[in-house]
Amino acid sequence: RNGDPGDVFSGGNDAVSGGNDVVSGGNDVVSGGSDIKSPDSLSNGGQPGLTDDVERAALSRVAAIYRTIADSSGGLWGGAYKMETIPTYLVRRDASGKGLHGFLLHHPSPPSDAKLIRTADAGGLSDVYRWDGAVDQVVADTTFEFTYSLNGAKTYVMPFRDTGEESFESVQQQFLFLHEGFHRFQEVEGGWTNADGTPVVDSFPLTQTNLELVLLEDRTLLNGLKATAKADKITALRRFLAIRETRRSLDQSVRDALTVEEIGERIEGTPTYIEALYASIAGVTDPFTVQNLPAGRLEITFLYDGAGKRDLIEYFAGARYYGSGGALCLLLDEAGVVGWRAAIASGATLTKVIGDALPVSNQEIAALLEDAKSATSFEAELKPLAQRYAAAK
């Protein structure tokens, strides 16, 4: 997927950094504990099985993610995103990147030489198979894979390591698994129209007028996320729409940038929204994760004072839409808009969905724009910041 140049990210595309905290999920917290079995007890009747505690812990954490999603009241993406049903190949690799062992989860046609792992040894997961037949093929040149063809089934591949950011002990790896799994869902189970990813561009119109409106968009979204009343959520969406349409009227360079932004908001904003829902139901509150959820990402927009022109272009052209898209999804939920997920899956942009549900006439745009400015520190904060961004070298 499109890389994120934001400096709060590390460990590959779309990775969310989060130290070594363990994802919690109510009663499903996985702690490792004293019940971890010795390597000798983890084999499968003399056949290759789990070779050590690292592998058992990884499967236990994946099981906790599945249970947290399954046990939540509304599920994720209206209950349609069921990670536990996606054919998955977890590949353990060493420090050099070489594949070591592989584990098939929920695969409809495991290879004949795959060995079943006992449910008790797999964190409660059933139908987990040890199969090392493709460990080098699938991890040699990629961080993950959405539709790897394995014995006739499109398989989601996610490598992991023993320690560090790519270990399932890390919240970063757990949220990466969740985020990239949603991209897999977009392409396969969800059957999305135009789910091929966001174009990579190296330009963005850093004009003061455009930047003023971009900053106003993000401050308006943040105010909407902080609001508690449904009416205020709706107001935030309508103000955002007025700002967005004002940007669209500026010039062709801005319209070209918006084409990419709105693809990014749809493709990358939606899994960022999924992360936010998961963090809420699982009770994940560590600072690194929170910083990479929609509100935390939007705050980054205001932290580039003093940055160079190239850094600003990379952020606004290739990273900002993670936060703006995620925030728009949350606000659509909170505003009670019906049917928005189906519209997104069918190819609509988030802006189009908002415009259809909460239409803003051309006559209303100017008044809503002024309302948005009045509700923020536009003259004192946003306008001067936009001026400094526009002057960056």
Please characterize this protein's 3D structure:
The chain is of the alpha+beta class and 393 residues long. The chain has helices at residues 53-71, 135-139, 171-187, 208-226, 230-248, 252-267, 269-282, 287-291, 294-300, 309-318, 320-334, 340-345, 350-357, 362-374, 378-390, and strands spanning 88-93, 99-105, 115-117, 128-130, 145-150, 153-160. The protein has a six-stranded mixed sheet. Helix 4 (208-226) packs across helix 11 and helix 9 packs across helix 11 (320-334). It is elongated and about 65 Å long. The relative contact order is 0.14.
What brief labels describe this structure?
393 residues, alpha+beta, six-stranded mixed beta sheet, 15 helices, 6 strands, elongated
In short, what is this structure?
This protein has 15 helices and six strands. By secondary structure, it is an alpha+beta fold.
Write the layout of secondary structure elements.
Elements: H1 53-71, E1 88-93, E2 99-105, E3 115-117, E4 128-130, H2 135-139, E5 145-150, E6 153-160, H3 171-187, H4 208-226, H5 230-248, H6 252-267, H7 269-282, H8 287-291, H9 294-300, H10 309-318, H11 320-334, H12 340-345, H13 350-357, H14 362-374, H15 378-390
Parallel strand pairs: 1-6
Antiparallel strand pairs: 1-2, 2-4, 3-4, 5-6
Radius of gyration: 22 Å
Distance between the ends: 29 Å
Helix content: 40-55%
Q: pLDDT under 50 segments (min length 5)?
A: 2-47
